[in-house]
Every structure is written in structure tokens, then in C-alpha cells.
Amino acid sequence: MAPQALVDIRREELTSETAGALIAALNAELRARYPEDGVNYFRLDVDEVRPGLGAFLVAWAERDAIGCGAVRLIDSQTAEIKRMFVVPGMRGRGIARQVLDALELEARRLGAARLLLETGTRQPEAIALYKRAGFSETGPFGEYRPSPLNTFMEKTL
Prior knowledge:
This protein is of the alpha+beta class.
């Protein structure tokens, strides 16, 4: 395993060029892993990550945006992790865990006692990350429906 990268993780506007580029790269990877017709990549709205309701965070290595993730409140006690991504060339260095830790901290600041997330069954590295971070499998929630392509996870904060 490569040594852990030193990154700076900070809030970014979801409408920024940086956020757009990272989300476009994430969506391209998801399309490659899930090419079936009708597969849905759930959106994230600007209002969901405004201060007091959520956050969109970007991991930086010097001047390069190398990863991202979001957290949004679902209700006063529950938050959801969304849009986790690390650029392929920077994987295996602990960056996703650092982003996830920062998102958990944001969720706590928002008052959440429980975190939920949805990921795909064809993303074993993501599932392994979440399990190492204390998440366990659960059922569908919110707008999600049961699917053989989805894994739903939760963690008590």
C-alpha cells in the first residue's frame, strides 16, 4: 500500500468548476461500471449542501483537486454521504478515508446521530472502505429502491 497522502480537505461550492470536474469524472466511472439502461446516478442539489444542511468537500494535494464527497441532512438526526470519489491515480493512499472522516465530522456538526449511504455492488473497494469505517449493511432509504446493483449502509455516530 502506498503511504498516506497529505491532503487539505475543504468546503467547495457545488457549482464550482472544480466540483463539476470531479462529479463528471465520478459519473463517467459509474457509467463504465454500470452500463445497463435505466441505471440512475442520484443527483445532489446545491441547496442540500449549503451551510447548516450539508457540505460538499474537496480533497486537495497542493493545487490539484484529487477527491470529493458530500454530506446532506435527511432529517434532524440523520445524514447521508453522497458523491464520494478519488481520482484513480491517487487511490490507495488513504484519501477516501480522510474525506469520509471529514464528512462524518460535518455530519456531527449538523447534529446527525446516524449516517446512511448508498453504493454499488460493483464497487468492492468502496464497500470495504465503509465497512472498515464502521458502517454496516441496511435496507433502502429515502428515494432509493431495492436493486441487485445497490448496497445500503449505515453507521451510528
